[in-house]
Amino acid sequence: MPSASAQGRSSVGNLRFSSSSIARGTSTSKQACVPIEARSMRSRVVLLARAALVGRESGGGSARTWTRANANASAAAQNASEQRQNNRTLMIVESPAKAKTIEKYLGPGAKVLASYGHVRDLLNKQGSVRPEEAFAMTWTSTARQRAAVKDIADALRQADVLLLATDPDREGEAISWHLLEVLREKKLLRDNLDVKRVTFGEITKSAVLNAVASPREINTPMVDAYMARRALDYLFGFTLSGLLWRKLPSSVSLSAGRVQSVALRLICEREEEVESFVSEPYWTVTANLLSKDGASFDAALTHVDGTKLGKFTIASNDQAETYARRVQECDSLRVTGLKLSEAKRSSGPPFTTSTMQQEANKQLGFGASRTMSAAQRLYEGAGTGEGLITYMRTDGTYVAPYAIDGLRDTAIELFGADYVPESPRYFKKTQKNAQEAHEAIRPTKAGRVPAQVAKMLGPGSDEARLYALIWARAMASQMTPALSDRVAAEISSEDGSLQLKANGNRLKFPGFLAAYRTSRPDAPPPSNDAWLPELRESDSLAVNVDDQTLGCAATSHTTSPPPRYTDGSIVKALEERGIGRPSTYAPILKVLAQREYVAKQGAALIPTTRGRLVSAFLTNYFETYVDYGFTANLEQKLDEITAENVQWRPLLEEWWTPFKNQISSLSTLRVSEVIDALDEKLGQHLFGEEKYDGYVHVNPDQVSDVGDGTTTSTNDAQEVSDARKCPSCKTGRLGLKPSKSGGFIGCSRYPECGFTHPLHPIRGAIVSDTDDADFMASDASSDVLLYPKILGVDPETGSEISLRLGPYGPYLQLGEKAAPVVSEDGKKAKKPPAPRRVGVANIEKDVSELTLEDAVRLFEYPKEIGKHPMTESPVSINMGPFGYYVACDGINASVGKSVLKRVGSLDNVTLEEAVELLRKKAERPPRTRGRYAKKADKKAKKEPKAKKAANEPKEEKAKREPKEKKAMKDPALKKPLTAFFMFSADERANVKAENPTFKIGDIAKALGERWATLDPERKAKYESDAKAAKEAWTRVATERSKESSS
After folding, report:
1. Catalytic residue among 116, 323, 391, 750
2. CATH number of the domain residue 320 falls in
3. Closest CA to 322 of 308, 301, 306
4. Which range of residues forms the domain containing residue 317?
5. Which of 341, 638, 923, 1002 has the highest CB neighbour number within 10 Å of its CB?
């Protein structure tokens, strides 16, 4: 609990839980306003609760001590609950799903309402944070926030106790503080109203009741830390974004964030590393050898003539082939050494927020936002009536002793005593800025195995798949290591000129890996095929030469660039640098995508041209504020506010003064000066120029003033360096050109020269989107891929097929883009249709190896493979931006890698397999968030109605023939409802009656939750009714179709 002096210094230090003190703004303590009987009862509860924490304070303690203390605390909570039954209690949480679950725990005299997140936020307007007024802030509420406050205010008038039970993190603390401030302004905090702050890390009955029995004050340093971060982010983003709008042309409003800009810099710098990477070839030599018993195994060549072979020792393919022939012809190979060892592999700690996001991205392909949405629903119970996991925004690896006991007992029950170590395992995070304020993420009940959750929520749901990952990680953290046997065999020729090495390993004891097998029973078992045959020293070996193999092969490889960041790896990179906190990772990535700074290519994060320019602008003019060390140090200072080591207003003043001066110094910059500076800064990367020295060297070929659209150029080729020389006109200077979508590389002689290139390095790929028909790019290097590349002529249409490069990567084009035909009156005719194009970014083949046959095959899609046996509708295979899929009647089902691996190739996908994929997609439970259905096609515009006569006589109106009634559609032809929509039609009224304040979206979400947890027998009845209705509809539709055709 913070000291009185610290509270006096704080901006919210005068806030106390006595409603009278809140109303008057005095510093009256909470205890003075609590009756003596309740005070003594609360003292006993607090003492028991502190006793229950002995296990944590002592680094674990005995399980028996913890269990006894926890039982006593639970008993005290039950007594306190019984004493409070006569009081009318109102509890406030964030979400309605959580409210519905918790209300069952508190008894009939309690009501739980949702605040729907924050009840107010900073006004999105200049001046909402005023540094000149000691960083005073202006708050406002949206219509939904005002509606939530109204519901709370109405219920509060009938309540005796107000429990603020928002999340236990900084944002949750701020929500409670904001709500109290709003209620105080509305004068709803009566003197006899008992206001309490309660927190719990899991939504279970025991956790909630224990929290209610152990209330506390609002943590004012935590609120101060929230105020500092909110003001800092607002001033950084709002002030810097305004400068970006004025200095960088764009079709959308640009923005910059304190942590968002650093994440963008990381992604842009990694992309520069990838683009600058030059692949190098290297070779390895591997022999297939036979033991005495005739068993074969592989061995790698490691030494030749006493020289150890490094990665790049073999300099050419001819040299590698020479070494391979020497091994193949050697008949004196013997085993010279054997080394046996045992390897242990231990599990990691339970998940924190960042490690959960990393593993969900790696194992499930979930983005950060998708992971956190699924985790939020699991925390709230996902409609099961009880929370399934503990609080999911944490950086701590600590687990409560009673939970450790539950994990160990469950492991013994499921796997046996050999799988559990003698003593519990405890983890402590080594990250220096880890707060560890909450437990690690774990299941609330260790015995609730993933199969049970999958049955409740649906086996393919995001929540069930993420729960399996969380359960396995938590269970594995309290299990024994996995043991593997390893063997290494040294092999040499008789004269010692050739030396080889063979390695083998096999799983000896699965240990903690058994937990992952339980969480994924459909996963293939681990392979044990890497073990070597039985060998002894001095055993003679032979090279396995037969009709199928030459016995020894030289294999060529090329080095790979560093991998691009994914959602998981960027979170890991930010955490390693001490940047951001558990609650910020998902919003950061979401904002980068919304602002179109980053696009996804598969799972990889690729900076867009807009993102590159924004990052270059910030690193050029605000390098200090997007520096990794500066941002991490600022994060640490903000955390010290919570520890009461730093005052938040002086900290903001220290940051704001130099930042404001930097903004003021750049306000007079012209747009052309900014473009020139970015052109110089990006020159080294884009054109291979000499290292940027930090100064702007204005070239007359560059745009003189972007603002008015005028350009100045010179034809003096002496002023243009070879790196900047336009490959089309040979005289113009290549440079950065701004555009509404960000920017591109263009020639200074535009419009005479129309050469353009995406904002990627000009070396390694020459792109011609010029109108110059005589343009010819030189092919001096075999590694250079020229665009457009003519592959040949399509045999069916006779049109030319070319490989081109666009803003989203390489693509194939059939034919040429036709020019618009100008009519005789000088007006342009209708725009001609664009030529067919197919993206080749996801075909899993090197673009440089594409042939005419490949291109012709890709243009065959969409390809019809037959008729659907039930609907007689055509079933087709098509290729989209994310891979291949089958389509029928508006349903698209992906053809995954597992299907392609089973059938061999896409051409082998049969109609039966396509129908099965479509069936599984159609039967998948409806998603309760996001766009789970395609938008309906727009209806054709109706003919405009004829205007009525202004002064039409009544007689004429009477003579007018009455309108014909619209022909009624045959009800038998109306498409029947699916099983879910049948259930929704029956259940929607009940949801509305139970939740009168629910909007349409809330009702749909509640229906989805109820459908997921519906009794299997009742669900089967809906599914059978829907199937029968669909079959009947299909018969009627077929008969009517035959009648109409006859």
Report:
1. 391
2. 2.70.20.10
3. 301
4. 281-346+485-558
5. 638
pLDDT above 80 for 785: no
pLDDT of 778 > 50? The answer is no
pLDDT-above-70 percentage for the chain: 76
Beta pairing, strands 874-880 & 883-888: antiparallel
Q: Comparing C-alpha atoms, which of 73, 157, 80, 79 is closest to residue 111? A: 157
Instruction: Provide the pLDDT for residue 254.
Output: 77
Q: Are residues 623 and 656 in the same domain?
A: yes
Strands (E), 938-1017: none
- Residues 872, 893 contacting (CB under 8 angstroms): no
Q: Find the CATH number of the domain harbouring 448.
A: 1.10.290.10
CATH number at residue 574: 1.10.460.10
* Domain annotation covers residue 624: yes
Domain annotation covers residue 61: no
Residues 442 and 428 in one domain: yes
Q: Are both 98 and 210 inside the same structural domain?
A: yes
Three-state DSSP at 371 gives helix
The pLDDT of residue 580 is above 50: yes
What pLDDT was estimated at residue 158?
87
208: helix, strand or coil:
helix
1003, 910: one domain:
no
- Residue at which a domain ends, from 478, 501, 518: 478
Is residue 241 over pLDDT 80?
yes
Residues 793 and 909 grouped into a single domain: yes
3 state DSSP class of 670: coil
Residue 391 falls in the annotated catalytic set: yes
Structure token pair of residue 324: 């391979």
C-alpha of 165 from chain center: 28
Alpha helices in 305-459 (DSSP H): 317-329, 353-359, 368-380, 401-415, 450-457
Which domain CATH number covers 169? 3.40.50.140
Same domain membership, residue 362 and residue 269: no
Q: Is the pLDDT of residue 179 over 80?
A: yes
Average pLDDT, the chain: 77
**Structural domains counted in the chain:** 6
When comparing pLDDT for 28 and 233, which is higher? 233
Each residue's pLDDT tens digit, 919-970: 888 877 665 554 444 444 433 444 444 544 445 555 554 545 454 444 445 5
pLDDT of 395 strictly over 90 = no
Would you say 396 and 437 are in contact if contact means Cβ atoms under 8 Å apart? yes
This prediction's pTM: 0.64
